[in-house]
Amino acid sequence: MTAAVALILGCLLDAVLGEPRRAHPLVFFGKYAAGLERRLNRVVRPLLARACGVLALLLAIAPFVAMAWWLARVPLGWLADAVLLYVALGARSLGEHARAIAIPLASGELAAARAALSRIVSRDTSGLDTQGVAAATLESVLENGNDAVFGALFWFALLGGPGAVLFRLANTLDAMWGYRTPRFLYFGWAAARFDDALNYVPARLTALSYALLGEFRQALGCWRSQAAAWDSPNAGPVMAAGAGALGVRLGGPARYHGAWEARPLLGCGARPVASDIERAIRLVRSTQLLWCVLICAALGLKVI
């Protein structure tokens, strides 16, 4: 039962404290990873660049996962597990960032909402209208529900604190290196594929959870008919099911790094408005509660 206690404590720490305001371990990890990339991402030939990317992935993740594994096995290791899960989770910060957009958007302060949105997405937000800002925010909330919450919970259930750390570091590297740009096309291949592999099962469980807690048939229909058209094999099911569960229309063309990308539509119904952002936050929160109950029950019954 100590694993269940660690799970509950880690989630409570995130709910009460949120992300550390100073000296966040992921900030240090990001700087470390950036240093590795500068040193190893120097070759042009595709095969060698991919090999350097694999080496960088191992050098970035292995020391921290090994440290987490050691911490989880010292006396009171369950407490270390709880802290490791807390560091890997981002549920409270996800809600805070989304509300920082929703509040000015609901008040008609479009410029302030665009500025807040630009802090959490990589697309160009300067030309978005009210519905565009709301849609981009919902996409971020739904996708990051998996990336910042449910993926970490899934791997914690399987491997404890080290599993949560492994997932969050892999997800961070994908966010840093997993771009199809000339700089990262080959070097970032290993990070992107590793994150895809770790995310495959959690993403589909997240999509199913969104469906269960929203418009079930609608969510499953959108997942089945729309997810495969999305460029990410894991974000597609999550966002299609989430949009269907909420009854809103997401996706469509978006501008990234100065170029327009033709993205398929996801979900069904009207384009979202500011009030839909809070609905998305509630969906993520309800899903987290469901997962915690189910994981604790499984751990208590020694199923996992």
The radius of gyration computed from the alpha-carbon positions, rounded to a whole number of angstroms, is 19 Å
Shape: globular
Quaternary state of the chains: single chain
Biggest sheet: strand arrangement:
1-4
Query: Which segments are poorly predicted (pLDDT under 50) over 5 or more consecutive residues?
Result: none
Helix-strand pattern, N to C? HHHHHHHHHHEEEEH
Number of helices: 11
Largest sheet: 2 strands, antiparallel
- Our measurement of the CA-to-CA distance between the termini, rounded to an integer number of angstroms, reads 12 Å
- The structural class is mainly alpha
Q: Percentage of helical residues?
A: over 70%
> Average pLDDT value?
94
Strand content: under 5%
Q: How is this structure best summarized?
A:
The protein is mainly alpha-helical and 304 residues long. The protein has eleven helices and four strands; from the N terminus they run ααααααααααββββα.
Structure description:
A hairpin with a 2-residue loop joins β2 and β3 (259-261). The longest helix has 48 residues, at 130-177. Helix content is 71%, strand content 4%. The chain has 304 residues and is mainly alpha-helical. The strands form two sheets. A two-stranded antiparallel sheet has the order 1-4. It has a two-stranded antiparallel ribbon with strand order 2-3. The protein is built from eleven helices and four strands, in the order ααααααααααββββα. α5 runs antiparallel to α11 and α7 packs across α8 (189-212). It has one domain (2-300). It is found in: Cell membrane. Its main location: membrane.
